[in-house]
Amino acid sequence: MAAISLQGITKNWGDTQAVRDIAFEVKSGDFAVLLGPSGCGKSTTLRLIAGLDTASAGTIAIGGRDVTGLPPPQRKIAMVFQSYALFPHLSVRENILFGVKVRKEPAANYEARLKRVSDILGLDKLLDRRPGQLSGGQQQRVALGRAIIADSPVCLMDEPLSNLDAQLRQEMRREIRALQQQLGMTMIYVTHDQTEAMSMADQVILLRNGSIEQNAPPALLYAQPASVFAARFIGTPPMNILPLAEGADGAVIEGSDGPVILPRGSGRGLQLGVRPEHIALVERGIAAVVESVEYFGADTIVGARIGAAPLLVRVPGQLTLAAGDRVRLGWDAAHQYFFDSATGLRRAPG
Ligand SMILES: Nc1ncnc2c1ncn2[C@@H]1O[C@H](COP(=O)(O)OP(=O)(O)OP(=O)(O)O)[C@@H](O)[C@H]1O
């Protein structure tokens, strides 16, 4: 059974439609990520699930129960927000237990639950400190502790790592994912960071202008993007999108193993997409001129131009190339995508 189910959810703020006809389901025990650029409606969707705002239309069910009209406490969900919202004058212990006490849950098992949560999060030696005496990562763990001590099967997180530095973010990603799996929680996690989404999620719900652009597991989103928007939102650097010349029917582009055969009629109104990591420098390929070379240790990003069209190429290791060099580029036909120039939608192969 779906742990969370949204049907036809719309939210209007006056004239602004923050989200429009959103529908998705999250399976029990899955980690779902709401992903998209600023203003696409991620936080709105999360707040509607939490019950902090009321939907203009549609229904929300949690654990098979319609909660559309219920206030937040009756929805039995745990929440972690961007600002940890810890009480500065309370100890770690008191911060973690705060919600449990507010809900007047039986005091009998406070200590056992606190011990379990602080062991899991490595906070056992910090219970008497105040938030001001903790690092950012430790504060984040206290916020997580407060969410998971509630033993709610569903947990919502809104950009919980955005205040942390890059290294700590990565550690906390792994920690949150491990915790979610260990506790069997159903998670809905908001981020605008595609790396975070790809590395943590079972299911990515990609939003654009208040609507769902694509809803798929990370590997599928990467391999079968539904549109130019989805293709360019996932992957670093983003997928190259190249215009195809008018009348470019049949064999057009000379690839690494000879010409790449484009589908008949594909030249008109189509764009070609190839990811930087799928392009190689080859002997026989498409002529290009190098414009920039950036070395990152494990790989090098080469900026080049095929005619007037700019593109990026990611190759492993270091290259002895400089701006102005002439190279030849190739890729496997299996790694090229075609998108309708007018709608941006991907044309299925064949
Ligand atoms: N309380 C509100 N009143 C009016 N408009 C709002 C309100 N909350 C959100 N909006 C609008 O709804 C749209 C979606 O906002 P939302 O906060 O859900 O986006 P988001 O994807 O979470 O963005 P971000 O990543 O920047 O937080 C935006 O256009 C925003 O301005």
UniProtKB/TrEMBL annotation:
It comes from the Bacteria. InterPro entries: AAA+_ATPase (IPR003593), ABC_transporter-like_ATP-bd (IPR003439), ABC_transporter-like_CS (IPR017871), ABC_transpr_MalK/UgpC-like (IPR047641), Mo/tungstate-bd_C_term_dom (IPR008995), NA-bd_OB-fold (IPR012340), P-loop_NTPase (IPR027417), Transp-assoc_OB_typ2 (IPR013611). Residues 4-234 form the ABC transporter domain. The keyword Protein biosynthesis does not apply. One of its GO terms (molecular function) is ATP binding. Gene3D superfamilies: 2.40.50.100, Nucleic acid-binding proteins, P-loop containing nucleotide triphosphate hydrolases. Pfam families: ABC_tran, TOBE_2. Keywords: ATP-binding, Cell membrane, Membrane, Nucleotide-binding, Translocase, Transport. PANTHER family: MALTODEXTRIN IMPORT ATP-BINDING PROTEIN MSMX, TREHALOSE IMPORT ATP-BINDING PROTEIN SUGC. This is Carbohydrate ABC transporter ATP-binding protein, CUT1 family.
